[in-house]
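Loading example: each entry is read as two labelled lines plus one structure line.
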Amino acid sequence: MYRAPRGTSDILPEEQAYWRYVEEKVVELCQLYGYERIDSPAFEDTRLFARSVGEGTDIVEKEMYTFTDKGGNLLTLRPEGTAPVCRAYLEHGLHNRPQPVKLYYIAPIFRYERPQAGRYRQHYQFGCEAIGDDDPALDAEVIEMAWRFFQSVNLHHLTLQLNSIGCKRCRPGYLNTLKDYYASHTEELCADCKVRLVRNPLRLLDCKRPACQRIADAAPRSSDHLCPECQSHFTRLQRYLSLLEIPFALNHRLVRGLDYYTRTVFEIQPENGGAQSTLVGGGRYDDLIEELGGRPTPAIGYAMGIERIILNLKEQHIPVPPLPGAQVFIAHLGDEAREEAIKLASRLRRAGTAVILATGSKSLKAQLRQANRLGARYALILGEDELKSGTASLRDMTTSQQSLIHLSELPGALK
RNA sequence: GUGAGUGUAGCCCAGUGGUCUAAGGCGCCAGGUUGUGGCCCUGGAGAUCGAGGGUUCAAAUCCCUCCACUCACCCCA
């Protein structure tokens, strides 16, 4: 028997109400903040991700679904959403539009990882990118937008973590300070951290091991080593967030695992969240567009995992509106009635009524049982008696009231 | 890639060596009215007990290997 590949899943009809709910709130939110939808291909030139996400990151090193097509092109299933949007920004000359260009997407993301709670090999992300402006007011707006999203879907008990990791001017100096500090603690570090010290010192800060955490807590903070411009940017961002009454917690150990981040980084997670609980991750990437071959263009964005949002909606028992079901079920008895039913179903649908037409030659009992299971508001019954008089029995499935109506009264009689 | 746990019908699960030709519940199908749903009653279909090998007179039950799933680490949404 075939199964969905590891880390992938089918979203069955009974799950769809959650998806529809989240997607509708996303579309509403984006419209409110002036974001327009963009859809990019599911796969891209592998080099796009290697350049943007970073050669040394786990995503590029071990998590990409990479393949060679029959033309010999090296392609990769999108492991994150920002790089493709930046590529599209450059490819289509979007710098000729009013800046910042604000785009959003809802798209499947692919990463070859061991699946666990809240983590899948194919999952969906809603992401936003505001490209072409470095105003901290834009950072504040973007963060506010993510924050308000959760209010709109009724998710509560979340925390917003904030940090600034500086820019290409001030970060090298900070990294040296950090490495100097860690040099005196090398012996106490876990094996992973010893590697991080050489390969990616920033990541030393978010190691989960208690021993390493103690060292990280006392480590020099990036926010204390910002250049004047970054310092001012960070200060103004915090001021704007306060103006917006967005509660945030400074977390000097928040760094993020993709190489392209600069200055502002933030995450939103549940207060009591365990592993894999981050709902949103985002930040500035002021050098990425240039890195991909464009002119220097500051930008900021975030992405949220839709499966994780739905997971939290369920945990918090947030009700979501049910999807509309069938309005009318047409039952019929006998060959002649079936032909009348086929015509009637078509006529009602053309008039905009959602109809389910019984199939086969089941007993009326079985047909009504099905109508009930499908949640039909009405049942229309066509039998020999009705046929003779050009009528149908109209049964209200909630009240069990039943009456005879002329076919000519349809669909008017369905209210 | 590493570690731990779990694998019995579509779903939840009983069963820990012989009475298992595997129980129950949900769901599905049908009947209880010659044309009427939801509740109730009755019946039916549906399981190579994850796969392979081994131990034994006898294995869903014990052992080994593999596979899958889940959770955690790594890392991330």
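The domain at 328-409 of chain A is CATH 3.40.50.800 (Rossmann fold).
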